[in-house]
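Standup notes
- DV: blocked on the single-chain target, sequence here:
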Amino acid sequence: MTEKLKSKINDEQLKIRAISDEKITVKLTNNYAFQKIFKNTKIVKGFLMALLDLKEYEIKKIEMQNTYQDDWTERSLFYNCRMFTDGLKKGHPYGEIPPCIHVGILNFNQMISPNYYHKFSLMDEKTKEIYSRKFQFHMIELKKLKYVKEKQKKKPLYRWAKLIAAQTWEELEQESKGNKYMERALEEMIKISQDERERYLYLREEMAESDRASQIQSAQRIGRKEGEILKLISLVQKKILKNKTLPQIAEESEEDTIVIEPIYTLIKENPEAEKEEIYKMLNL
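- DV (later): unblocked, structure below
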């Protein structure tokens, strides 16, 4: 069966599921659902109030960027540095650069510490004196929520983390109850579950995440050396610049589509990334 035909069959199956009576649980760990829900200014404000200990009136402007990558440390540094420099308007003094706060919500463990929440600032490693608070990183590790102590469970941020990590409607209802911002998020999730078009887009993202994991594992099993993979990434980048499709690239490079597809997808999603960055994203 060709990849094109297989993709068409899978898509038809998703459309059937989308219009069926199947009850689907909308999870915020799904990329589509997260981006859809957190585009709502009211919901984002509620989350930031819990994260940064702010009042609603103190939050004037919000910019959200959603990225899901394994090489989190390097990518978070890159995005925050770029956002920080973009904040300097021509002719204005450096002191007017606004703070850049990077928020990472990870569905995997990044830090050795068992704590689920981490806050990073620039500081002197020896004295712990803060160098600047304008460059901050906040990280929430969802896999560590089971280790949270009772005292921490009373904090609003813990409830938000539990809401994002929830796997059932019962959990979603329990965590959002009594919080108007979280209840609004639940309402939006229910809308996704009831709308045919939204259900289809949600299920498509769910399938894409599963397919990508399988594709990366397949690429890993090939056991190629780093230099060979970098060379292949460079080749795919050049082909994409020539507007070649995935099947065309696979055929012209004499490679299996299952090997090319994860590289192709990452390059399309990150057109400005160097081949070394794409290699890291593959998590090989």
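- Follow-up: The CA atoms of residues 71 and 281 lie 6 Å apart.
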